[in-house]
């Protein structure tokens, strides 16, 4: 950071990233304005130089000995390696020569890129080594003893999701099927990774790049040295270029901005701008109100708040809310099928290896890229929308913690092929990361809890539930509706699950641990003594107004009111029959928006008052006309912090 931020009591630093677009630049030597295309070309020349040197460094040290030496944190003399990757590589003597005349800071960026890639592979190397050390007799199905052995062989394997171990096992099995033997290590199992075309300006100093924020705080000026030709032969072939950057509105005015990472996407120069600002510090324990969140399929998220009272009782605040995204996931599934068909065609063209099919193969490759981009954008938009909705629920309820169940090890199976696929491609990991990102701004702790029996046991008495098809079909076996044979509680399966998750988190909050490397919070296991207290206590319903009756609710009559008034339709001047007096209120919409229904009352996107008005936003069709969110309906707590009402936007 260029300056020290003042912190108030209970605050901490938070570094986030915002995306910005660089549209033009000015050559300080000639005063010439550089348009976007020319600026992207000059930055592309610098990217090629840095990525080429980084690729050679990675290929040279892509082996077990060098990666272990870098990960050990000490050099040959026993001195501690610096935290910066480029400095650590220079301490170890891992250098690379530039083919042309470049500034030493360009070499720094190449070494930083290579050092980060080599440090990242260390975790995968230990994982593959642990799996190979205790290779099972049947790779498709490990026994309980084999699971314990493989977890003991992997560093940190006790808390590692089983899905990660299974995926590495399948990767090793495919290698053995192809080569007739097991791989020696991850460096034989995986090829040298591709180097991203990105300029890591954070590895540079003022001799290569500087950034300064304007007085109004809405813009910044980025200055950096760029080549004037693809193969610079002297330092005079490098000139300073000033690039104005409009800061996104998500960057606070008090934030300190850092040198960004530059990359080229679709011919445009984009900057990943890092900034640091003070935020409230999230607490590990001491929570009185928490939000429990349960995962689903069509109902992607079900959430509700619970309150821990001073006497140890846990009560639910309101009926909770839901975020439904069945339409988005169905669209995602359709794009996945399209991608599979395109890949199948591309593989067939590759097997035929005919020059006459090269043009068709190029068209297929471009279409595969477009479909992949659509899938990626859809997943990203869904993750941000669901995360924002979850954090809004927590803020509206006055919660200081969000408890999520840990479903990293869930692998769909036993259902139809369509259902298994939709369950497997749910973007739970991205949603969790976005929730952590947004919750940090409000000082809300995000804690992962074990998912054991959250939908199986009653939230009121912990009795195993009976799951039925629907509330009006109590004898038909199903999974959506839950009925408790002990306390007679019944409700939606997901509504009971979020109550169990919130109660478990509040009861086990003293067992919350924080990962030193990532800062994530989690409850590793369930303690039976604490689990017996993780029950939701029913509260008596009270009325704010006197609704006592002093007489009959409606006048007694033996004649039923007809559904339609027994009057003729009014005549119209045109001669056509008019509408009867009974009917719906007039509206300017002739039909409901696609994927919406009449009982929907909230949208996940705001309704613009001017300009473009997306169809469905006014009537609650919401995000992509498919994702629907219910507003929070919280009850007033009997004690503890005040719960503020909120609404979605």
Q: What does this entry look like structurally?
A:
The protein is an alpha+beta fold and 649 residues long. It is built from 13 helices and 22 strands. The chain has helices at 36-60, 64-71, 85-92, 104-133, 144-153, 162-179, 186-189, 326-352, 358-397, 417-424, 428-441, 493-507, 528-531; strands at 11-22, 25-27, 33-34, 198-200, 209-213, 219-227, 238-246, 256-257, 261-265, 268-280, 289-295, 299-308, 314-324, 401-405, 445-449, 466-470, 473-477, 481-483, 490-492, 512-514, 521-523, 628-629. The strands form 4 sheets. It has an 8-stranded mixed sheet, sandwiched between helices. Strands 1, 4, 8, 9 and 10 form a 5-stranded antiparallel sheet that branches. The protein has a 5-stranded antiparallel sheet with strand order 3-2-7-6-5, with helices on one face. A hairpin with a 5-residue loop joins strand 2 (25-27) and strand 3 (33-34). Helix 1 (36-60) packs across helix 4 (104-133). The model is unreliable at 558-567, 580-587, 592-609, 611-624 and 635-649 (pLDDT under 50).
Keywords summarizing the entry:
13 helices; 649 residues; alpha+beta; single chain; five-stranded antiparallel beta sheet
């Amino acid at each position: 950071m260029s300056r020290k931020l003042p912190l108030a009591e209970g605050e901490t630093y938070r570094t986030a990233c915002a995306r910005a677009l660089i549209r033009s630049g000015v050559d300080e030597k000639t005063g010439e304005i550089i348009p976007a295309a020319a600026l992207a070309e000059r930055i592309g020349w610098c990217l090629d130089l840095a990525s080429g040197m980084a690729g050679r460094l990675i290929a040279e040290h892509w082996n077990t000995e060098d990666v272990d030496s870098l990960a050990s944190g000490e050099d040959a003399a026993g001195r501690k390696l610096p935290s910066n990757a480029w400095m650590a590589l220079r301490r170890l003597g891992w250098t690379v020569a530039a083919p042309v005349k470049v500034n030493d800071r360009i070499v720094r960026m190449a070494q930083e890129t290579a050092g980060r890639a080599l440090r990242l592979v260390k975790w995968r190397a230990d994982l593959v080594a642990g799996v190979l050390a205790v290779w099972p007799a049947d790779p498709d199905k490990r026994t309980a003893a084999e699971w314990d052995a493989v977890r003991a062989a992997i560093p940190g394997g006790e808390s590692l999701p089983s899905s990660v171990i299974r995926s590495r096992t399948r990767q090793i099995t495919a290698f053995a099927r192809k080569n007739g033997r097991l791989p020696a290590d991850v460096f034989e199992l995986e090829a040298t990774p591709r180097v991203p075309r990105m300029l890591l300006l954070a590895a540079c100093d003022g001799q290569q790049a500087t950034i300064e924020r304007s007085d109004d705080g809405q813009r910044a000026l980025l200055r950096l040295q760029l080549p004037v030709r693809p193969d610079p032969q002297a330092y005079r072939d490098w000139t300073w270029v000033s690039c104005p950057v409009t800061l996104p509105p998500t960057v606070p005015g008090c934030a300190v901005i850092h040198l960004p990472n530059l990359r080229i996407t679709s011919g445009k120069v984009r900057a990943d701008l890092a900034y640091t600002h003070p935020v409230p510090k999230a607490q590990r324990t001491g929570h009185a109100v928490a939000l429990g969140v349960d995962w689903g399929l069509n109902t992607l998220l079900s959430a509700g708040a619970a309150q821990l009272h001073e006497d140890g009782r846990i009560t639910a605040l309101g009926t909770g809310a839901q975020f439904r995204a069945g339409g988005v996931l169905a669209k995602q599934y359709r794009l996945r099928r399209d991608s599979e068909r395109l890949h199948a065609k591309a593989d067939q063209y590759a097997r035929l290896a005919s020059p006459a099919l090269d043009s068709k193969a190029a068209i297929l490759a471009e279409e595969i890229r477009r479909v992949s981009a659509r899938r990626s954008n859809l997943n990203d938009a869904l993750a941000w929308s669901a995360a924002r909705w979850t954090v809004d629920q927590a803020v509206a309820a006055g919660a200081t913690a969000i408890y999520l169940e840990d479903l990293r090890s869930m692998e769909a199976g036993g259902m139809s092929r369509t259902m298994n696929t939709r369950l497997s491609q749910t973007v739970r990991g991205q949603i969790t990361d976005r929730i952590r990102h947004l919750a940090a701004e409000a000082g809300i702790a995000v804690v992962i809890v074990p998912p054991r029996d959250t939908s199986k046991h009653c939230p009121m008495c912990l009795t195993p539930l009976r799951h039925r098809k629907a509330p009006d079909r109590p004898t038909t076996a199903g999974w959506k509706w839950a009925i408790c044979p002990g306390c007679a509680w019944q409700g939606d399966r997901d509504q009971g699950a979020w109550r169990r998750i919130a109660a478990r988190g509040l009861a086990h909050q003293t067992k919350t641990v924080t990962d030193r490397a990532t800062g994530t919070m989690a409850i590793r296991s369930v303690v039976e003594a604490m689990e017996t207290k993780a029950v939701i206590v029913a509260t008596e319903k009270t009325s704010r107004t006197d609704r006592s009756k002093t007489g009959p609710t409606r006048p007694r009559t033996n004649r039923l009111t007809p559904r339609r008034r027994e009057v003729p339709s009014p005549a119209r001047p045109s001669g056509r029959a008019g509408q009867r007096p009974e009917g719906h209120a007039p509206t300017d919409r002739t039909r409901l928006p696609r994927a919406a229904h009449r009982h929907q009352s909230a949208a996940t996107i705001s309704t613009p008052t001017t300009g473009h008005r997306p169809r469905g936003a006014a009537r609650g069709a919401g995000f992509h006309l498919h994702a629907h969110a219910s507003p929070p309906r919280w009850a007033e707590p009997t004690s503890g912090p005040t719960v503020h009402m909120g609404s979605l936007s």
